[in-house]
Amino acid sequence: MGMSTVIATKRLTKTFHLGEVAVHALRGVDLTVASGEMVAIMGASGSGKSTLMNLLGCLDQPTSGDYFLDGSNVNALGKNEYAEVRNQKIGFVFQGFNLLARTTALENVELPLLYDHARRIKDPRKAAIAALERVGLGDRMAHEPNQLSGGQQQRVAIARALVNEPAILLADEPTGNLDSRTSLDVLSVFQELNAQGITVIIITHEHEIAQHAKRIVEMRDGLIKRDTPVQNRRNAQKDLAEWRNEEMAND
């Protein structure tokens, strides 16, 4: 996959009004993400990273500035077109999995295709099966969420995010509800998908998680304070192998 630009923001701002008080959550953010990158966006509470995620995910609109997603200026779109871009171009992975209870993994993954009014995916069931196989859950398709571990549930959520063949995967604190070992397992899925050419953006406040990306964007006071490549990128599969070796040595 070529390194074309998939995300470009220009002087992006977002101001919230709480009564008579104006809160400047974003103060003019310029960010470019190329196709095939894996970027971690970091920052403390109040830094603007969650606001930026909401704008990148087309969950909210900026006060001013431009946002180009996969070549289209989404700010110029109407409400219905905006929602369509969100459904087609962005795959969301959330901290809380957001899976439907009493619904199989396969049915959960098929769900976004119900909103694919353009019918880009001709065979939803086939696409859902392929997405689950891609995240290593080909043998868990008939399982409901309460029959799956936390890591497996997040894999289902990643498959659901993939099924629409989005331009980007946008993951908001995807390991926040998981223990360290399971976090590595989920990160290994993101790294594997990224190695296949999928653009991945992870929102996190944990530096250890961010070290698995190729690039770290640090937010502070509504601005990008630092944007640097990761020098010694961590490999989640390797970390998992070391974890298992330590466990065996301690048995």
Walk me through the structure.
Helices cover 33% and strands 28% of the residues. By secondary structure, the chain is an alpha/beta fold. The longest helix has 16 residues, at 180-195. Helix 6 (180-195) packs antiparallel against helix 8. The strands form 2 sheets. A 6-stranded mixed β-sheet has the order 6-7-8-3-9-10, with helices on both faces. The chain has a 4-stranded antiparallel β-sheet with strand order 2-1-4-5, with helices on one face. It has a single domain (5-95, 165-250), classed as Rossmann fold. The chain is globular and about 60 Å long. Helix 6 (180-195) links the parallel strand 7 (168-172) and strand 8. It has 8 helices and 10 strands.
CATH class type? Alpha Beta
Structural class: alpha/beta
How many domains, as an integer?
1
Query: Count of helical segments?
Result: 8
Please name the fourth-level CATH homologous superfamily. P-loop containing nucleotide triphosphate hydrolases
Write down the secondary-structure element order.
Answer: EEEHEEHEHHHEHEHEEH
Q: What is the CATH architecture assignment?
A: 3-Layer(aba) Sandwich
Q: Please name the CATH topology.
A: Rossmann fold
- Our estimate of the beta-strand percent is 25-35%
Strand order of the largest sheet: 6-7-8-3-9-10
Mean pLDDT, all residues: 93
Shape type: globular
Q: Percentage of helical residues? A: 25-40%
Q: Biggest sheet, in brief?
A: 6 strands, mixed
